[in-house]
Amino acid sequence: MLFLFWCASEHTQFRLAEFESLSCLLDVPLVWVFRSSEHPWVILDMASEQEAVKIISRSISVKYCLHLWADGNSYQEFHSNLKKFPFQEQAKWLAEDISFKVHVESFNKKVSGAERLEKIESLSYIPLQGPVSLSSPQVTFSYFEFHGFDHNNPPEEPLKIMFGRLVGEGQREKITKLSIKKRKFIGNTTMDPQLSLLMANLGAVAAGRVVLDPFVGTGSLLVAAAEFGGLVLGGDIDYLTLHARTRPSRVGQKVRAEDESMVANFEQYGLTSQYLGVIAGDFSQSPWRDQPWLDCVVTDPPYGIREGTTRVGTEKDFSTTSIPEEYLDTHVPEKVAYTLQQLVTDLLNFSARSLRVGGRLVYWLPVIRQNYRPDRVPSHPGLRLVADCEQVLSSHTSRRMLVMERVEGEGEATVSKELTMFKEQFYLPVAGNISRKERKERIKEHGHLNLSEQEIQQFTKQL
After folding, report:
1. Cross-strand partners of 403
2. Angle between helices 193-202 and 15-26 (to 10 degrees)
3. Which of 140, 228, 293, 312 is most buried, taking the most CB atoms under 10 A from its CB?
4. What phi-psi label fits residue 184: left (phi over 0), alpha (psi between -120 and 50 degrees) or beta?
5. What is the pTM of this model?
């Protein structure tokens, strides 16, 4: 059976990785008939409708799923193929006691009400016996047209037409449910719910699985993991953030409300039973148990731009002195810089020690685009790279969502210094005062700014 999954047009680079992850999580084999991260749909050959339902019961990328009855590259080809469809095999959906409606959707072309009606009437040869019900139909049929990607010169006729019975919708209502606009407690770097939910799916979070965010911030990733049934906990070195004592992030709010807190978010969404708690601690001196006990590590480490990267330490010499015992209870330790290379190294080594075999690490790595190469991706002998998805931030920078799975193997992480020079080179285009015209020309030719070593050294001196 062929099933068409009509997908959302944002964050398309994460779509295929999500399908692959859900395939492993739900034990649903993927037989690709049409596989694309650019077009707004994919088609899978599946053994049963139940398998398609499993995918949409978790997918954030999918808007609708259809049992595909026919498609074509022109109106003539489409109608010819649909007329050949064995309607008798789908008689229960065409019976006189089954109400229906036809949904029409077009990609890259606005369709008027009159045009929608015309397209529906062109399907009059389908032996539909039941009454029309626009408000509460028992079955919905969907008609999709694809008009290419060129908004300025769309083709006169669609490049692809598809029709089928609606099986169900994806889980995109969760994006609205977890919207940070209405969330009780947020901060400057709170992750938006769509990406948080995608990370939970890529991490194969499921009911009863233990999920840790070691750089938890305001807990956005944990809320998404709990929404899918994960038992969540986290840690962070920033005591003030964990206790909601930082300055408010919302426009116009000068003081945080008394009931703002990490746990308030879980109470808001009815997820308190999934929340195990958070601790204030230094990840570089991990307070967590040193044995396999986690099913997933999901995190967005600080980049050093909007939020600083620090760890407990000092540059002073205390080899001959110590803190008097009477001050130990109230002592606040000094902090020193925590480089991105050190942080990622610690993260991979910790994950290799703490994840059960088959468990997953999902994290964001900020990069200077021209510094990125696949052979520079951080690695560990006990972690297998499953997915590497890019979210472009600017002509100069992006961040990559890296998904790694725990496998048999021991050793230490390997992290490229060149790849982790994000903070040091973030402001180079500003320092170099590169014009918009020149940026466009460089991006068109190279895909990034392609700064030379001489320019990097020159711009660095101007920072």
Report:
1. 362, 387
2. 50
3. 228
4. alpha
5. 0.91
